[in-house]
Design goal:
The complex is a heterodimer of chains A (259) and B (384). Chain A is α/β, with parallel strands linked by helices and 259 residues long. Chain A contains seven helices and eleven strands. In chain A, the strands form two sheets. A nine-stranded mixed beta sheet of chain A has the order 9-8-7-10-6-1-4-5-11, sandwiched between helices. In chain A, strands 2-3 form a two-stranded antiparallel ribbon. In chain A, helix 2 packs across helix 5 and helix 3 crosses helix 4. Chain B folds into three domains: 115 residues, Acyl-CoA dehydrogenase/oxidase, N-terminal domain (Butyryl-Coa Dehydrogenase, subunit A, domain 1, Orthogonal Bundle), CATH 1.10.540.10; 111 residues, Butyryl-CoA Dehydrogenase, subunit A, domain 2 (Beta Barrel); 144 residues, Butyryl-CoA Dehydrogenase, subunit A, domain 3 (Up-down Bundle), CATH 1.20.140. Classes of the chains: A alpha/beta (259), B alpha+beta (384).
Chain lengths: 259, 384
């Protein structure tokens, strides 16, 4: 089974993140880049699928030169090879354009299943998985908390507020995962050393067959107009229990229409 | 001149940093308070391959080097010294003597389990009456009918009494040399050997989530083939192991010193006094600057000792210097960090209190600071 796992480099959530004042895109130089946290779960799931069904795990990442670090990490977790889609024309692409570009890059690869994190910690749109499936004309199995493949059939548990839905499709398909799905492994030193020798194929927009008029900041469907720091959290309401604490808590929740 | 890490070392450092932050830091305080050994964390360290770092792949190792081990120790000790010393002792005291001096049979039998972290090895040198004076060994091993019969007591033995302790390599007197001095050899004693008894578990000032016990050997019979290295070479073998171990302990001490800087920076940015964060006051800034300088210089000292060791150059003096300055840095930084935290530094809710308790042993274990000075002086040509 050929598995492609999508990996995105994002600014470390532990550091202060900034936008570039000139175009409101992410200032990647302002903070350390790390692999998007949910992508580690996607990589782990891809490796588990490979361990169970055989085949190969290919990492696909779209991003500037620095994304190499995240690709290396994915390879040192155990992925077999990588494709790095890297082109200045892609700078500033929004979620839809990213999905389009990734679908084109995927067109150069053979795969049975594409696995990705359900969202990234920088933009948090959470739509790339669904949009990608549309562009590819493939079934989308999003927010998976469990994945099972049998023959050409794939079945997931989609996490919902009330439990989970069971969703089934035929391969090939696109699967986005949530963090309850597994516990990502840490790369061992042996794999870190081996990763140095694993192939990373560079792919330009032209090589992927991407129409550069459809990607990048200028043709993006969405635009970041302004950004502001999140307001500090307001002080909470303290209810002192004088025998009627439960009642007061219930009244508070009812007033906020939670119950 | 380039002290930057090679890419694979840098990635390993980063990986262990993340592991320590995400897997160790949130839970270790609880183990520490209960004097409990963190089996699950040790198992995870094993799955990451940390126990196999400096060993060849053919024995289940990671094919890395001793410097890789040092980097891992530093990153673990930034968060907690108990897990760091468990790794240090498991690798450089438990498995290393077998790897360096053991027979092919011993390596094949023991190293894969030790490298995976599923089993731990211990190293029995210190006795109730003597520490660094290894020639004062009282434990005996007599060759009777093709078996070593070991009798004696070993003190302060790390990893000696866990559920996964598989063996102890112990120094023992195996006879008299022609000059009348005791002949000391190293004997591998599996922990399931009758007469292998885990004695008292120590109540320690620090390192409370690590395992330290007395070991008592009573007519413990092991095959003659369990001799590790040459007969009578026990003492010189251990000197080499101790020289290496000093670099590892220096790395661990640098981790603690750096952990003090990390915690102090965080606290100085949060804690307010007299209308501003305390990080704005010069009294705090100078303390933290000194702490960072100590951690940095001690780090360079152990990098230097490790690079000499890996290049097969003499490193005894540099290892002793690294151990001396790094344990000083750890002690000084723990004191300063606790002071910056004020009353909270004296509470067990913050890691700096743990750092304070864990720092002192670094000036004692693997050769006291006085022994390090002695080694440095001798290496400089001063009379023994």
């Amino acid at each position: 089974m050929n598995i492609v796992v999508l990996v995105k480099q994002v600014p470390d959530t532990a550091t202060e993140r900034k936008l570039r004042p000139e175009d409101n895109t992410l200032d990647r130089a302002a903070s350390d880049g790390v692999i998007n946290e949910l992508d580690e779960y996607a990589i782990e799931e891809a490796l588990l699928l490979k361990e169970k069904h055989g085949g190969e795990v290919t990492v696909l990442s779209m991003g500037p030169d620095q994304a190499t670090d995240s690709i290396r990490k994915a390879l040192s977790m155990g992925a077999d090879k990588a494709v790095h889609l890297n082109d200045d024309a892609l700078h500033g692409s929004d979620a839809l354009q990213t999905a389009y570009a990734l679908s084109k890059a995927l067109g150069t690869l053979e795969f049975d299943v594409v696995v990705l994190g359900s969202e990234s910690t920088d933009a948090r749109t959470g739509v790339v998985g669904a949009a990608l499936a549309e562009y590819l004309g493939l079934p989308q199995l999003t927010l998976a908390g469990k994945v099972d493949i049998e023959g050409r059939s794939i079945r997931i548990q989609r996490q919902t507020d009330y439990g989970h839905d069971v969703v089934e499709a035929e391969l090939p398909a696109v699967v986005s995962v949530v963090e309850k799905i597994n516990e990502p492994r840490y790369p061992s030193f042996k794999l870190i050393m081996q990763a140095k020798k694993k192939p990373v194929q560079k792919l330009t927009a032209a090589e992927a067959g991407i129409d550069v008029a459809k990607v990048g900041l200028n043709s993006a469907a969405t635009e970041v107009v302004d950004a502001a720091a999140a307001p500090p959290r307001a002080t909470g309401t303290v209810i002192k229990d004088e025998g009627d604490g439960g009642l007061k808590a219930a009244e508070f929740l009812a007033a906020k229409k939670f119950i | 001149m380039d002290h930057r890490l090679a890419p694979e070392h840098a990635q390993l450092r980063r990986t262990v940093e993340e592991f320590a932050r995400d897997e160790v830091a949130p839970v270790i305080g609880d183990f520490y308070e209960r004097d409990a050994f963190p089996y699950e964390i040790v198992a995870k360290m094993g799955r990451m391959g940390l126990f196999g770092l400096p060993f060849p792949e053919e024995y289940g190792g990671m094919g890395g080097d001793y410097f890789a081990l040092c980097l891992a120790l530093e990153e673990l000790a930034r968060v907690d010294s108990s897990v760091a010393i468990t790794l240090e002792a498991g690798v450089s005291l438990g498995a290393m003597p077998i790897h360096r001096f053991g027979s092919e049979e011993q390596k094949k039998t023991w190293l894969p389990r030790l490298c995976s972290g599923e089993a731990l090895g211990a190293f029995g040198l210190t006795e109730p009456g003597g520490g660094s004076d290894a020639s004062a060994t009282r434990t005996t091993a007599d060759l009777v009918d093709g078996a070593w019969v070991v009798n004696g007591t070993k003190s302060f033995i790390t990893n000696s009494g866990t559920d996964i302790t598989a063996l102890a390599t112990v120094t023992a007197v195996t006879g008299r040399r022609p000059d009348g001095r005791p002949e000391i050899s190293a004997i591998l004693v599996p922990s399931d050997t009758p007469g292998f008894t885990v004695g008292q578990k120590y109540s320690k000032v620090g390192w409370n989530a690590s395992d330290t016990n007395e070991l008592v050997f009573t007519d413990c019979r092991v095959p003659e083939a369990n001799l590790v290295g040459r007969r009578g070479a026990g003492y010189s073998q251990f000197l080499r192991i101790l020289d290496e171990g000093r670099i590892a302990i220096a790395a661990l001490a640098v981790g603690l010193a750096q952990g003090c800087v990390d915690e102090s920076l965080r606290y100085a940015a949060e804690r307010e006094a007299f209308g501003r964060t305390i990080g704005g006051y010069q009294a705090i800034q100078f303390k933290i600057a000194d702490m960072a300088a100590r951690a940095h210089t001690a780090r360079l000292a152990y990098y230097d000792a490790a690079s000499r060791m890996l290049a097969d150059e003499p490193f005894k003096r540099q290892a002793a210097i690294a151990k001396l300055v790094a344990s000083n840095a750890a002690m000084d930084n723990a004191r300063d960090a606790t002071q910056i935290f004020g009353g909270y530094g004296f509470m067990n809710d913050y890691p700096v209190g743990r750092f304070y308790r864990d720092a002192k042993i670094l000036e004692i274990g693997e050769g006291t600071s006085e022994v390090q000075r002695m080694l440095i002086a001798r290496d400089l040509g001063l009379p023994a």
